[in-house]
């Protein structure tokens, strides 16, 4: 029975990550509002992405993967989070961030501290250019 629970957990986690990825691809085809590009980029990267990614990766995926073990679930969501970030350098940074954010979620039992840290990271990257 435990193997079935682990298999279901893996499938649910991968399904959630795939749905997130596909939703992003679909949204990319929608016409952008007639806002200033820099303002739209700020809203996307510094507000929307940290909130949504924390809810999806540290919230849903890490929770769904709990039958694998607490720290295995945190590691799995970090790997899936990294894959979403495309380039090798982006993936490496996202893997490290995902591990830290997953550990924070595991230790606190909440996603909002990760949202704050994720927002701070993205604000620094946005300010750097």
Automatic annotation (TrEMBL):
It holds the Pfam family Rce1-like. Residues 40-124 form the CAAX prenyl protease 2/Lysostaphin resistance protein A-like domain. InterPro entries: CAAX_protease, Rce1/LyrA-like_dom. GO terms for biological process: CAAX-box protein maturation. It comes from the Bacteria. Its EC number is 3.4.-.-. Coiled coil: none annotated. Transmembrane segments: none annotated. GO terms for molecular function: endopeptidase activity. It is an enzyme of class 3 (hydrolase). This is CPBP family intramembrane glutamic endopeptidase. It comes from Faecalibacterium taiwanense.
């Amino acid at each position: 029975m435990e193997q079935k629970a682990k298999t279901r957990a893996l499938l649910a986690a991968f399904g959630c990550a795939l749905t997130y990825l596909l939703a992003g691809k679909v949204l990319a085809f929608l016409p952008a509002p007639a806002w200033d590009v820099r303002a739209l980029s700020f809203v996307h990267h510094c507000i929307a992405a940290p909130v949504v990614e924390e809810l999806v990766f540290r919230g849903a995926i890490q929770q769904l993967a709990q039958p694998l073990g607490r720290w295995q679930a945190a590691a799995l969501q970090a790997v899936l989070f990294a894959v979403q970030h495309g380039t090798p350098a982006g993936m490496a940074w996202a893997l490290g961030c995902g591990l830290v954010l997953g550990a924070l979620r595991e230790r606190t039992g909440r996603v909002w501290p990760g949202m704050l840290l994720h927002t701070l990271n993205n604000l620094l990257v946005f300010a750097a250019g």
